[in-house]
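Researcher: Please predict.
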Amino acid sequence: NTVMAARMTDAHRRFLQVLMSNGITEGSEARKLHQHCCETDKVYYAHDKLDDFISTINSHLQPLFMQIRKGVSEDDGRAHYAVVNLAETEVTKMASDYTETELELFRKTMDLIILSENGFASSTDILNLADQLKTKKMKKKEAEQVLKVFVEDKWLSEKNGEYTLHTRCIIEMEQYILSNYQDVARKCNICHSLTIQSQVCESCGIGMHLPCVRKYFRGQTEPRCPKCNEFWSCDTP
């Protein structure tokens, strides 16, 4: 395998360091960073070789149970990259940064989001959980502050008082979510990434991200499910 044989250059190391310190990096930023790292290290740069560049880094990260993963924003369908620790579960991944009580609030928030119909949970519903925590009851003011931190740390996204999982969280916790929410978690039928906010086919139950729905049905006079070919009854965005 040529990828496995490729050596890790300073350009690769620099790229990895920035990705790790960012937490998550948008696709266009990753492409700029790729160019910058190659030019700084005076190694060959090809604008269409970012995936190969990342594969080389991943081959060296493999023994460390780490990986750079690509995911899509559920909002606009843009690619994002994050460094994932494959040896950790959701709990240990966040345990070093948050208290047991904060983690419990996060898990309960995650439940609300994933089990909801639209992939969102209202701040009211989340704050109502604060005084029902088993570890330690939390005052609403305190819980509001913790939610703010989860948004700043890119585990949650907030829009008009509604919370959903941030792209970073979806990339890093995909395996955890798929195994812990087997009955409801699904992958997008188009891009095969985990989808939290999705449209679902009423006939066969497949799900698609809204940006993927938009792209897939563009130019089609009558939207039909890509799997069962039944009429797509959701309002296409």
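Model: The first strand starts at residue 25 and ends at 26.
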